[in-house]
Amino acid sequence: MNVMNNSNTDFETRSLDTICINESAIKHKWYSNLKYLFVGLIFGVVFIKSEVVSWFRIQEMFRLQSFHMYGIIGSAIVVGIISVWLIKKFNIKTIYGEPIVFHPKKFNKGQIYGGLTFGLGWALTGACPGPLFAQIGTGATVIAVTLLSAILGTWVYGKFRDKLPH
């Protein structure tokens, strides 16, 4: 890891930011990634069966015409809250025995701008980043434009991250 000017390593700086910090230091064989492929396939099937990938369901949500998507999102929030509580309460570690660390995050106005931009993109395209690959897999190949836009947006954010309000 590179040492930054303020003598923090990149990992130390990122651990206090909103970027994922639970990175494994363990090196694995290539085939150990097959578990992620399997989980991704299962997740994609769940997205398709629950209609999370449906442009019409997403439009219904943003037009306040249906509770379907709000119910799914609310369920995910409840599962996330319970999961984090269990991890903290029982000091659960990764499957490789590494600790899972949570740092408190400061709220700032950049999160408002980011959330509004994210929601606007979601409403316009009818595609949240999570199910993009599942949408493409169902044959909605036009979503590839949204995927490329998401990749470009991520790159632009990374390029100008230090100049943005955090």
Structure write-up:
- It is a single chain.
- The protein has 166 residues and is mainly α.
- It is 56% helix and 0% strand.
- It has seven helices and no strands.
- It has helices spanning 10-15, 34-49, 55-62, 68-89, 109-125, 132-137, 143-160.
- It is globular and about 45 Å long.
- It starts with 9 loop residues before the first helix and ends in a 6-residue tail after the last helix.
- The model is unreliable at 1-8 (pLDDT under 50).
Q: Can you describe this structure in just a few lines?
A:
The chain is mainly alpha-helical. It has helices at 10-15, 34-49, 55-62, 68-89, 109-125, 132-137, 143-160. 56% of the residues lie in helices and 0% in strands.
What key phrases describe this protein's structure?
single chain, 166 residues, globular, disordered N terminus, membrane, DUF6691, transmembrane helix
Present the secondary structure layout.
Elements: H1 10-15, H2 34-49, H3 55-62, H4 68-89, H5 109-125, H6 132-137, H7 143-160
Please give the share of residues in helix. Answer: 55-70%
- Helix/strand structural class: mainly alpha
Question: What is the H/E string?
Answer: HHHHHHH
Compute the number of strand runs. Answer: 0
Oligomer designation = single chain
Number of helices: 7
Terminal-residue CA separation: 23 Å
Question: Nearest-angstrom radius of gyration?
Answer: 18 Å
What amount of the residues lies in strands? under 5%
Output mean pLDDT.
82
Largest sheet: none
Spans of 5+ residues with little confidence (pLDDT < 50)? 1-8
Gross geometry: globular
